[in-house]
Specification:
Layout: E1 41-43, E2 73-77, E3 84-88, H1 90-93, H2 97-107, E4 123-125, E5 138-143, H3 148-158, E6 165-167, H4 168-180, H5 184-194, H6 201-211, H7 218-226, H8 233-239, H9 241-260, H10 279-294, H11 312-324, H12 335-339, H13 342-347, H14 350-364, H15 368-371
Parallel strand pairs: 2-5
Antiparallel strand pairs: 1-6, 2-3, 4-5
Length: about 375
């Protein structure tokens, strides 16, 4: 008996600092259609998004033995039995060593221990199956926890067309199944395609966890930690308690830095020069900044289907406008201070991102043993 090869791991996996056992997201029974669908389309730059080694005869052969599956068909059945797909076996075996082992095992070509199908989440042998040798030979499997939409999305990757446009909502389940079923070339393609989208932070975190793409995690965590509005109930539930606590700590540090600006700077405390406001304008800016930070009317909550959050600069501008509408000349910036970039220099909002990134890496880096475990289909440990 032969041991089947383990799934290949992503070299960048060592940078995944935001996974924990309780945060592993469960498989969405409705597929990934709940994610934002307004991301546009990605144009395929190649007639094939599958294994690039097929384009060069000089590259080494795969490290696994791809069997002769000419004429072999695989029949897939949806979990409810309402949909079936019959596809050539080579579509699934050419780029996935694990799928190749399952087919060889079920045909009796080579027996593996443990059973290789145990490493393909969402795929089970059909309870009513009969392997017919010779012409018309077929294998039969049932999809469990994989919706027809999910499987159709994978087939878009397995049957690419020249110049085709793959919508965002297709790329997400394609990435998940390519990860679960070890289609490395399709996984690499979808990661590159999805990286061009600017997602809402929660969907990006969920898909990164589910498909084990750690390089996507830091930016949305920074976004959630530096925006004006706190986490919503939906976001907190999706993230898990561990992430919520760390984001709350990061937000507290950001607020502390922002409030400290009200006590300064003073002349000579920033690059030895007075770069910001006249003394009266300084008082106006400080009062507006305090309102922007503490009054919720300047904080627009995020939408589930699109961004609506208020940036810190937008909140500041709104507070300044409200002050300017009140009676008295001392409630607005003078023309000179309005014309300069002193406001942006004073707030220095880029420092918030630096602060949060440093904090998150230090706070989560010690918990490597929690996120290093690969996810399972149920989301439990």
């Amino acid at each position: 008996m032969t041991s089947d090869p383990p799934q290949s791991t992503d070299d960048s996996w060592a940078d995944a600092e935001f996974f924990s056992d309780e945060e592993e997201s469960t498989t969405n029974a409705q597929g990934w259609r709940s994610f934002d669908k307004s991301g546009g389309h990605i144009r395929s730059a190649s007639p094939s998004i599958r294994s690039e080694r097929s384009t060069s005869s000089d590259e080494p052969a795969p490290s696994y033995s791809h069997g002769d599956f000419k004429g072999l068909k695989i029949k897939f059945e949806s979990e409810d039995g309402q949909r079936t797909w019959t596809e050539p076996a080579h579509l699934f075996t050419e780029d996935s060593p694990l799928f190749n082992n399952v087919v060889e095992h079920d045909r009796g070509v080579e027996i593996f221990n443990p059973d290789p199908i145990s490493k393909l989440p969402g795929l089970k042998r059909h309870p009513i199956r009969k392997l017919n040798k010779g012409p018309g030979e077929r294998l039969k499997y049932r999809l469990e926890g994989v919706t027809p939409f999910d499987f159709d999305s994978l087939m878009v990757g397995l049957r690419p067309k020249l110049g085709q446009e793959i919508p965002y909502e297709r790329l997400c389940p394609m990435l998940v199944l390519a990860t679960d079923w070890a289609f490395e070339s399709i996984r690499n393609y979808t990661i590159a395609a999805l990286s061009k989208h600017e997602d809402l932070p929660i969907p990006r975190i969920l898909i990164a966890r589910r498909a084990r793409v750690p390089q996507w995690l830091l930016d949305p965590y920074v976004t959630l930690s530096t925006r004006m509005t706190p986490l919503s109930k939906y976001e907190a539930k999706a993230l898990g308690i561990d992430s919520v606590l760390k984001i709350s700590d990061a937000r507290a540090k950001v607020l502390e830095r922002r409030l400290s600006l009200i006590a300064g700077p003073r002349p000579g405390t920033f690059l030895n020069r007075w770069t910001f406001f006249h003394s009266n304008c300084w008082m106006v800016a400080s009062a507006a900044w305090r309102k922007a930070l503490t009054e919720t009317k300047y904080h627009k909550p995020p939408r589930l289907n699109g961004p609506r959050t208020t940036t810190a600069m937008q909140a500041m501008q709104a507070a300044l406008q409200d002050q300017a509408q009140k009676p008295g000349d001392g409630r607005r910036l003078c023309a000179g201070c309005q014309a300069t970039n002193g406001l942006a220099e004073w707030l220095n909002l880029s420092a918030d991102s630096v602060l949060v990134r440093r904090y998150l890496k230090a706070a989560i880096g010690s918990e490597v043993e929690l996120w290093a475990k690969p996810s399972n289909t149920s989301g439990t440990t």
